[in-house]
């Protein structure tokens, strides 16, 4: 059974199926090409098996064949389209009793004889269109179709340019006929059609062939009462008499479109006859001349349809400006779909009358489009004086949506409501040059599921748009919109499934919606299309409420990076970022995608057409491409720019990753490691040198400091040097009793030796280290009172090392350091530098007996005073 109207097919179905259908068709086409093989009967033809049967399909089209080759007997379907065949040899098909479909279109066949189709007793479909079958050449013998006993479909379009009709009475099983018909007078189809009892479809359209039928009368279709579908479009019809279709009781579809000289007034004569028929689809598109004045759909035009079963009515391109008030009630209760696109509707009282229509689909697109469809087709019509004329008024939608000053408009809480039929589900208002802001707006009670306002200039969406609780598909694409309010999508969009916003200027407003308020009420949407919107940045929370989103299209924008949150979209199947300005994905984006892919294995992302880079900076991204569970759509076509400005395809991302990894590690790692090694070596070397010569450096430092303050410093030669002290005594504070009571008394008071003691002789105000260095430098000798307390004292060891440096660097290695062991100390307890001095030089131990005490002090005095 024929599909009566396409308007009620939901756009949502096409949106879901389009992507899957395209992919499956491509795969199917490739698979089918593999099934075709060269035919045995002709190398220029290709054949394939019919599934489940031992029969073949053969395609010999577009091969420039001059004749029909000898065929195999097991052919079921044969295409010889678009060749150079001029003759059908008698008996050429005699053995092809299995052949059911034969296409001989677009050849040069000029004659058909009785035996041309001999053997084709089971043929069901024959296409002879676009050949050279002319009446002047006696193209048909009277028994040309004698052997076609079961033919059901016959196409003879683009053959005849005269009123010749071939003898078809033998085709008793014919169901569908497409043919040319040319008549400069009243058109009459011959009585031979009486015998075609099974004929249901008759196509005489001039759109696909040659048709001229100036006048239709009661006799025109008198022999075709069995016809259910008839196409009379573009047949140059100028007048239709009442009674023309009266005898066609079974007709369910009538198409008289593109007969521009017929004029809209002829609709009354057509519908008068249709009240006696089974009409379901009536097409009267473009029957009014483009250059006539505007028309009105009157009650007289449609009142005879009241008792019919009409489902679909098409009256596009007829310059209809108004509908007579009260006329709508004459449409039958079965009425479901209306196509009145490309008209010039203006505002009027009839709008409120149309609310009572039982229709579910309405197409009022292309208002004031100047009949673009007919720009290349103009008929020369005879002037008609009584043509209905009307003055042009303001465009319907411009008035309706930009002004709410009419009395019958419904208001609810100051929200203007557009009147729509209560059962209406689909509205198409595309390409109508509507230029205004969508204000605060609602609809009257409705069942709307599909709104299509695409291809206009609805530049600002303020809203809110209310009373759209059943809406599932909303198309606002191609509207030059640059501003969307945060309340435009009201809470009534609870069931919206598909939102199409492509080809606008939303890149000016979306980046400012950092809290995701614009789409916050679209919680059940599964498809959002934002392609071609000049978007540069997507805020992180823009889609925060879209938990059910399955497809998100952001292609053809200027997005530089994917930094928006998607991990909550557990059902996401396809993210289209094609043709943007993305060079690499951030770690955040990769983690977001992987978090979904781990749960949803169907997740696919398209990064094709971006400025991807494959270098050291994007190494983590390339590694992600290798390991990610996310499906990368057509990854093998991704182009990636390397560090050498060459383009590399990501056909084998693992190989690309390994190459980049080697490039990055071969230089950077070695350089960094080598640099660190050198710096560490220098540091250790310097530290070793400093440690090795730490006392010398400290001595030099303090000597410079001493000499800087001692302006009377003289040469260090022994015969010229005068010392301030005979000896500097280095001792621990714990041993001060021995030094101040015993040593000082024995040496200085009794022996006349001038001693320097830090408690007595150090200058206040100077730091300790400077005082020590100065004392050692200004003393002829240094006496070390060695004890366990001495070894434990930091400053004592400092004094010892400074004295040692003084003997080496200032006294030409003269022995100025004398060790006095005040206590018995084991050699293993002595530091290495003191033990070395003990082994190389003399030392003296403090005695415990009386005789030794005398000798000890005498030797010590002698050592201090010696030069």
From TrEMBL:
Originating organism: Mytilus coruscus
Family named by the database record: Belongs to the Toll-like receptor family.
Q: Output one GO BP term.
A: toll-like receptor signaling pathway
Transmembrane helix as UniProt keyword:
yes
- Which keywords fit this entry according to its UniProt record? Glycoprotein, Immunity, Innate immunity, Leucine-rich repeat, Membrane, Receptor, Repeat, Signal, Transmembrane, Transmembrane helix
Does the keyword section mention Glycoprotein? yes
Gene Ontology cellular component terms for the protein in this record: plasma membrane
Please report the name of this protein according to its UniProt entry: TIR domain-containing protein
Taxonomy of the source species: Eukaryota, Metazoa, Spiralia, Lophotrochozoa, Mollusca
Instruction: Fetch the InterPro entries from UniProt.
Output: Leu-rich_rpt, Leu-rich_rpt_typical-subtyp, LRR_dom_sf, TIR_dom, Toll-like_receptor, Toll_tir_struct_dom_sf
Q: Where are the transmembrane segments?
A: 670-693
UniProt domain TIR: residue ranges: 723-864
Q: Where is the signal peptide?
A: 1-25
Location within or outside the cell = Membrane
SMART domains cross-referenced by the UniProt entry: LRR_TYP, TIR
Per the record, membrane topology reads: Single-pass type I membrane protein
For this UniProt entry, the molecular function terms from Gene Ontology, in alphabetical order, are: transmembrane signaling receptor activity
Q: Which residues form a coiled coil?
A: none
């Amino acid at each position: 059974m024929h599909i009566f109207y396409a308007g009620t097919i939901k756009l949502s179905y096409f949106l879901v199926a389009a992507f899957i259908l395209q992919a499956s068709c491509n795969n199917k086409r490739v698979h089918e090409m593999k099934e075709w093989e060269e035919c045995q009967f002709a190398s220029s033809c290709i054949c394939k098996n019919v599934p489940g049967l031992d029969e073949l399909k053969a395609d010999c089209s577009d091969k420039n064949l001059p004749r029909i080759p000898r065929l195999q007997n097991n052919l079921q379907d044969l295409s010889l389209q678009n060749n150079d065949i001029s003759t059908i040899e008698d008996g050429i098909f005699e053995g092809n009793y299995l052949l059911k479909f034969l296409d001989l279109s677009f050849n040069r066949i000029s004659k058909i004889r009785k035996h041309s189709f001999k053997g084709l007793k089971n043929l069901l479909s024959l296409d002879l269109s676009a050949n050279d079958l002319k009446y002047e050449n006696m193209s048909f013998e009277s028994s040309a179709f004698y052997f076609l006993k079961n033919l059901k479909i016959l196409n003879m379009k683009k053959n005849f340019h005269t009123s010749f009709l071939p003898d078809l009475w033998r085709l008793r099983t014919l169901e569908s006929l497409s043919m040319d018909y040319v008549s400069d007078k009243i058109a009459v189809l011959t009585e031979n059609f009486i015998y075609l009892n099974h004929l249901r479809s008759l196509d005489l359209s001039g759109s696909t062939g040659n048709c001229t039928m100036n006048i239709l009368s009661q006799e025109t279709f008198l022999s075709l009462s069995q016809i259910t579908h008839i196409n009379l479009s573009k047949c140059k019809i100028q007048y239709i008499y009442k009674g023309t279709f009266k005898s066609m009781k079974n007709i369910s579809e009538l198409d008289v479109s593109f007969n521009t000289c017929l004029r809209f007034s002829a609709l009354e004569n057509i519908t008068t006859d249709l009240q006696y028929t089974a009409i379901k689809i009536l097409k009267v598109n473009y029957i009014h001349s483009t250059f006539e004045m505007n028309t009105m759909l009157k009650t007289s035009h449609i009142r005879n349809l009241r008792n019919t079963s009409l489902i679909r009515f098409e009256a596009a391109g007829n310059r209809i400006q108004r509908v007579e008030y009260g006329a709508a009630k004459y449409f039958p209760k079965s009425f479901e779909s209306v196509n009145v696109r490309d008209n010039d509707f203006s505002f009027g009282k009839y709008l409120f009358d149309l609310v009572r229509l039982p229709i579910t689909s309405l197409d009022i697109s292309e208002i004031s489009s100047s009949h673009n469809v007919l720009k290349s087709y103009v008929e020369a019509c005879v002037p008609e004086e009584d043509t209905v004329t009307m003055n042009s008024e303001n465009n319907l939608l411009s008035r309706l949506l930009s002004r709410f000053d009419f009395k019958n408009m419904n208001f609810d809480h100051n929200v203007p409501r557009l009147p729509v039929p209560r059962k209406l589900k689909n509205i198409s208002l595309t390409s109508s040059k509507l230029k205004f802001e969508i204000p605060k707006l609602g609809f009257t009670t409705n069942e709307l599921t599909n709104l299509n306002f695409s291809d206009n200039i609805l530049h600002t969406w303020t809203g809110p748009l209310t009373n759209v609780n059943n809406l599932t598909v909303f198309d606002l694409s191609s509207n030059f919109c640059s501003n969307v309010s945060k309340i435009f999508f009201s809470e009534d969009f609870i069931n919206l499934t598909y939102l199409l916003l492509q080809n606008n200027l939303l890149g000016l407003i979306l980046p400012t919606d950092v809290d995701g308020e614009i789409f916050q009420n679209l919680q059940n949407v599964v498809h959002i299309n934002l392609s071609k919107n000049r978007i540069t940045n997507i805020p992180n929370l823009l889609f925060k409420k879209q938990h059910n989103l399955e497809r998100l299209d952001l292609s053809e924008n200027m997005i530089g990076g994917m930094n928006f949150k998607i991990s909550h979209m557990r059902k996401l199947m396809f993210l289209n970022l094609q043709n943007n300005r993305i060079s690499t994905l951030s770690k955040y984006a990769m983690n977001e995608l992987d978090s979904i892919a781990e749960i949803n294995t169907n997740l696919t992302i398209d990064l094709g057409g971006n400025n991807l880079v494959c270098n050291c900076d994007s190494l983590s991204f390339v590694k992600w491409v290798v390991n990610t569970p996310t499906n990368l759509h057509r990854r093998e076509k991704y182009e990636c720019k390397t560090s050498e400005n060459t383009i590399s395809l990501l056909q084998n991302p693992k190989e690309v990753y390994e190459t980049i990894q080697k490039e990055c590690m071969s230089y950077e790692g070695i350089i960094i490691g080598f640099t660190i090694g050198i710096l560490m070596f220098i540091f250790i070397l310097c530290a070793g040198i400093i440690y090795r010569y730490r006392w010398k450096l400290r001595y030099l430092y303090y000597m410079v400091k001493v000499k800087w303050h001692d302006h009377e410093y003289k040469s260090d030669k022994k015969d010229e040097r005068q010392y301030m002290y005979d000896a500097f005594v280095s001792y621990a504070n714990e041993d001060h009793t021995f030094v101040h009571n015993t040593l000082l008394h024995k040496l200085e008071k009794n022996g006349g030796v001038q001693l320097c003691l830090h408690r007595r002789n150090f200058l206040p105000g100077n730091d300790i280290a400077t005082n020590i260095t100065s004392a050692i430098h200004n003393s002829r000798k240094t006496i070390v009172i060695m004890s366990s307390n001495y070894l434990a004292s930091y400053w004592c060891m400092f004094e010892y090392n400074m004295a040692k440096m003084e003997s080496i660097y200032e006294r030409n290695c003269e022995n100025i350091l004398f060790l006095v062991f005040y206590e018995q100390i084991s050699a293993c307890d002595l530091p290495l530098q003191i033990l070395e001095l003990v082994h190389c030089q003399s030392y003296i131990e403090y005695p415990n007996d009386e005789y030794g005490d005398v000798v000890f002090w005498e030797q010590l005095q002698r050592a201090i005073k010696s030069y």
